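cache lookup: miss for this entity combination. No prior model stored, computing from scratch. Input as submitted by user K.M.:
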Amino acid sequence: PLKQGTLFSFFNKH
Amino acid sequence: MFEARLANGNIFKMIVESIRELVVDVNIDCSTEELSIQCMDSAHVALVSMSLSQSAFDHFRCDRSLSLGLNLPNVSKIFKMMGRDDTMVLKAEDSADKLMLMFENDKSGTIADFELKLMAIEAEQLGVPDTAYKCSISMPSSEFQRIVRDLQVMGDTCKISCTKEGLKFSATGQIGTGNILMRQNVASEKEEDHVTIDMEEPVELNFALRYLNFFTKATPLSPTVILKMSPGLPIVIEYPIEQLGHVKYYLAPKMEE
């Protein structure tokens, strides 16, 4: 099964 | 003082329409160079980045950078009252507690004005690195819209794979599997009908079709859409607004657990 990632795993918070 | 006049007010209306299904409250950031928006959907799966250069405007004055906190459902209601050929004027004081919107039409001689209360919105800002992507595809935005709309009947997830063969969109569900392959195509005289595929290495990623469909609300803004992908990274789906700006969407991929 595929799991939906969030953008926090890829981009840094400012 | 912030003041901006856009002869083709419809562009701004289309920008609002391209975002409003993803987010409710947004900050429009005004600087001397541009109007810009960066916001995420509530699930933090998708990010919208909009920029409209001051050169898009007939008149643009921004003495001090400011953020206009807007509720998009309310803004959308106001824009429903804008005529197709109306000029739009935006005005705000530096204190930025309200926004004045004016829709003017020289032909009919009408001027509509609205005052909208602004909100203080705490928004999480993300640093999006400037990445060199392994695949970059340019295609007609209407084709992309049709593909992601049609594939919804097959399933919830779309596998997008870019190979030497072309760009393939696939969806699998209870009734079976559907594949739509786009090959490079530069035969047409009209450049906006071209499909160009720039591939350094093959990439295959899975995305929620629901989100891809939200993004196609930007289709009226641009005849062309640009898709950028790298293995294991969010896809970038960019709608250029002439030479004046863009609406870009970033969508996190679905990964194996």
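stored under new cache key. Chain B has a mean pLDDT of 96.
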